[in-house]
Amino acid sequence: MLGEGILWDDRTQEIVWVDILKGAINRGMLLDDEVTVKSTVTLDGYVGAVALSEDGGMIAAGTRSLISISAEGAVSTGPDLLGDRTDVRWNDGAVDPHGRFVVGSLSLKDPDRQEILLRIAPDGRREVLRSGISLSNGVAFSPDDQTIYHVDSLTGTVSSHSYGPGDFDQHEAWTTVIADFEGIPDGLTVDANGNLWIAEWGVGAVRQFTPDGTVLKEVNVNAAQTTCPGFVGVNLDVLAITSATTGLAHPERDESGFLHLANPGATGRQTPRWAGSTRSPYWNP
């Protein structure tokens, strides 16, 4: 229904992605240019994003909390992280180069620019990295780990900010680096050369941009609602693209809701892993 958050598990040689509305985390094998689903974990409520953990488990952005899934399959739901706000959920997110989880929020009613981008450390410490967002979406980092990129879908922008292992510099303003999209910017990933690959909802495409916004390449798929790209495969040279059927009156008219594969002539990077425990997460030590 709403595929998102695709990544590669280099330890198990599997593709991992979510179906947000079904609360599903899928694992699949890539063989002969096809992906075969091997297992699915279904959680209660939404699951906006998933990340791998150093201890072999996974951490997910649940409806309002983080959820840990240990390597043995034990599921534990953390405390509510959205406070007094109702009609809101967590959306896209990613682990940063220092093992912390960065995730943004999305309104379940009319957007009112109250969304946030939150960073959660393995010990539970939290820091708001950005506020006043319309719809928080893709999160990614530069190859030198010194820049964070963030998508605000409803303003149609991708912004950047300096980044590091310490406290976030709240005095530095976010800089808009891309604001020229044919569709609505959604998920993104950064390749080994530092270029941004951004899915554009509504136009069936993923485009490659330089960090300053120059378009280098476009990958088209037969699915209007492309949602997220991620480099997968042993050499991280296959671009996997999720898509969605939600909101379509006739999803059968194209390949919306399918997982698409392309060979774009670029290579990705292995995504970082959550540095916390999924067997004894910070909320249940």
Tell me briefly what this model is.
Helix content is 0%, strand content 48%. With 285 residues, the chain is mostly beta strands.
- SS strand fraction: over 45%
Strand sequence of the main sheet, in spatial order?
1-2-3-4
User: What is the total number of structural domains?
Assistant: 1
- The structural class is mainly beta
CATH fold-level label: Neuraminidase
Q: What string gives the helices and strands in order?
A: EEEEEEEEEEEEEEEEEEEEEEE
Number of helices: 0
* CATH-defined architecture: 6 Propeller
Distance between the amino and carboxyl termini: 35 Å
Radius of gyration: 17 Å
Sheet with most strands: 4 strands, antiparallel
Task: Indicate the low-confidence ranges by residue numbers.
Answer: none
Which bin fits the share of residues in helices?
under 10%
Instruction: Count the beta strands.
Output: 23
CATH uppermost class: Mainly Beta
Overall, the morphology is globular
CATH superfamily annotation: TolB, C-terminal domain
Average pLDDT works out at: 97
Structure description:
It is built from no helices and 23 strands. It is mainly β and 285 residues long. The chain has one domain: Neuraminidase. Strands 1-2-3-4 form a four-stranded antiparallel beta sheet, with no helix packed on it. A four-stranded antiparallel beta sheet has the order 5-6-7-8, with no helix packed on it. It has a four-stranded antiparallel beta sheet with strand order 9-10-11-12, with no helix packed on it. A hairpin with a 2-residue loop joins β3 (24-31) and β4 (34-42). The radius of gyration is 17 Å and the shape is globular. The N and C termini lie far apart (35 Å).
